[in-house]
Predict the structure.
Amino acid sequence: MNMSWHWSLWGYSRPARGAIILPVLKAIRHRTIVETIWINMRNPSRQIAALIIFSLFVSACDAQDDSSGEDVQTIILHDGGNRVYDLHVPESVGTDPVPLLIALHGAGDSGPGMKSAAGLDKESDRRGFMVAYPSATGVNWAEGCDCVRPDIEGVDDVGFVDAMIEDIASKRPLDRERIYVLGYSQGGLFSQHLACERSDRLAGVATIAGLMSIPVAESCSPGGSPDIFFIHGEEDAVLPFEGVPSGLYATLGVHEAFLWWREAYGCPFGTERFEEEKDGVTLDVRLTPACREGARVRMDAMKGIGHAWPPFGPAEIADFFGL
């Protein structure tokens, strides 16, 4: 078996419960071995470890290595500075408009890091959608909480995503009715911010091992109705499943965020609940399928799993969004 090793900074640098020590995550079918060594530079006095993630992907990375199509890195000028995104375009893309999935990396990572480790390109090739991998300006995205450096410094990451979409649309056959976002870890918090700020432009938002900031929830008033999908490990010690109820970095818990979107969308009473098994991971699934304008809200709780990218993630997300 060909084994590919990939380094990836997939951590999270905002404190959770006074510490952000990421434990070694459980390996999920050979997928992830994590060791933490990152120093929290935003609060040097704490000297708490955040994280460099050393990921060993066997089947996933082999799949990524087998991807075909075109890969392009682009620099665009936005808000007075250069911003970078990577784009994967399947060979099947011709002149007909195709969907776009925007993949947001975690804190300390980059678009290329997300691209190399997430396993999305092969799913893109199989189904015929494009994948964009934007890079943050530094360690974090401006997630809308006014609690991380990009927010405080006024970095316009929402506007950058807009500019990236326009740049892609000017060069590729983009289906503007089928633009989706997924975010991992701190990119997941930013994905929730985008779900609020660009609800009229997005068809769906998936938040993986990420939460909804309480300041974002308090100011959010979505005009559109993108599908919402949470996937989160119940044993997450970095961004706890139950959330962080108070303090500068306060967040809703995953189930609270699920209920928040149900209420925002005026979903009917009652939620489907069932268990699924995916790649050896047991999922406690909650699904509300018929909300405002046909929107769906789903939450998959991964039993016994910590802060991790799910091995079934690419296919599960593509299935949910109908890509």
Remarks:
- The chain has one domain: 63-321.
